[in-house]
Design goal:
Length: 143
Amino acid sequence: MSILEGLLDEFKDKAKNVYGTASKMTGEVVDMGKVRYQIKQTQWEIDKTYTKLGAIVYESRKGAENLEDVITLAIAEIDAYNEKLEDLENRLRTYKKVSKCPACGKENDVDFSFCARCGTALAQKEQEPTQAPREATEEGSAQ
Ligand SMILES: [Zn+2]
């Protein structure tokens, strides 16, 4: 009982933290290694939360106690981590100058119009200036 109350508090705090980190990261310049590290860490947090969720569901089924609130919080936490993960992976793709195929998930060069694996048409993103500015060419702005 007290363990579960502890978990409930933990989830409440966690939910705040996940959202806080995610919003704080927006617009912040971070290097690729840091992004990779954050992806690993976020995946690890997701795994941990799944494990906890399993324990909570187990306790909920075994005991008569209604743990719906805790379950809802655990699911919200996983959702928040997944959102953060998606954001981090997008960021990493921007650094690597690749985009993910919406059909098969393959990472293609951002300049590709079609996926190299499955041939799906890829949305062309506007090129944002990144840390590696391309050389100016004479015919650069021809339109
Ligand atoms: Zn594809």
